[in-house]
Specification:
The chain is α+β, with helices and mostly antiparallel strands. The protein has two domains: about 5-95, 2-Layer Sandwich (Ribosomal Protein S8, Chain: A, domain 1), CATH 3.30.1370.70; about 110-190, Fe-S cluster assembly (FSCA) (GMP Synthetase, Chain A, domain 3). The chain has four helices and eight strands, in the order βββαββααββαβ. The chain has helices spanning about 45-55, 80-95, 110-130, 160-175, and strands at about 10-15, 20-25, 30-35, 60-65, 65-70, 135-145, 145-155, 180-185. Strands 1-2-5-4-3 form a five-stranded antiparallel sheet, with helices on one face. A three-stranded mixed sheet has the order 6-7-8, with helices on one face. β1 (about 10-15) and β2 (about 20-25) form a beta hairpin. α1 runs antiparallel to α2 (about 80-95) and α3 crosses α4. The relative contact order is 0.17.
Length: about 220
């Protein structure tokens, strides 16, 4: 069965950052590769990236396997932008043409290099700031565009831990690595000396469209 013969499923997954949304396609769009395109001029040569940057408000695009993460610069709702992205994705897939040619070379750093770069930011910018109240942050893992961290010391169980994460850690990491879509705190805050921390209720949820999170035709 060809792409033209079946319905292509695309699901939108907004991140905690309202400017970033991930679109999951039910088939690979960039198999075996990850490409981070930070401006329109860098998209030349890829039908997918060129088309995405023609959508008003698209600022940056990260493509990896079956996922396309888009950062926007406008206040337009993701529902409106998502429909445009869904339409062009289906049209490109049905055309049968390569979305990103094999000779397109703009690849993201390998995870090991990215981890080392991010670890340097943690040690030079984040930990010195939270050390003033006995806190420390550990960079645990990077999976795709998700970063996993663990807090310790004065940050463990602290009632302000969520504020530290949102206003300090996330902002610092994303300013240097805009391709990061989510930062996940895996700390056991209940084990802290003052377990007053309560997880925020603003966890990302797929937006609903026609009763679900799918981007319909």
């Amino acid at each position: 069965m060809t792409a033209a013969d079946r319905k292509i499923k695309i699901t939108a997954e907004p991140s905690l950052d309202p400017r970033i949304c991930k679109f999951i396609v039910d088939q690979p769009v960039c198999p075996g590769r990850s490409i981070n395109c930070r401006k329109k001029e860098m998209a030349e040569g890829s039908p997918l990236l060129e088309a995405l940057f023609e959508i008003e408000g698209v600022r940056e695009v990260l493509v990896s396997e079956d996922a396309i993460t888009v950062a926007k610069s406008t206040d337009d709702e993701w529902q409106a932008i998502g429909k445009q992205i869904g339409s062009l994705l289906r049209a490109l897939i049905i055309s049968g043409k390569p979305l990103i040619p094999d000779d397109f070379k703009m690849e993201v750093p390998v995870v090991g290099d990215l981890f080392r770069q991010m670890q340097q930011i943690v040690e030079t910018k984040i930990n010195p700031g939270i050390a003033s109240h006995g806190g420390r942050m550990e960079l645990v893992d990077i999976k795709g565009t998700s970063v996993y961290i663990r807090m310790s010391g004065g940050c463990l169980g602290c009632g302000a831990a969520n504020i530290t994460l949102k206003q300090g850690i996330e902002r610092t990491i994303r300013s240097s690595f805009p391709e990061v879509t989510e930062i996940i705190d895996i700390s056991d805050h209940a084990a802290g000396k003052n377990p007053y921390y309560k997880p925020g209720r603003d966890a990302a949820k797929p937006y609903t469209e026609h009763g679900g999170s799918l981007i319909e035709d």
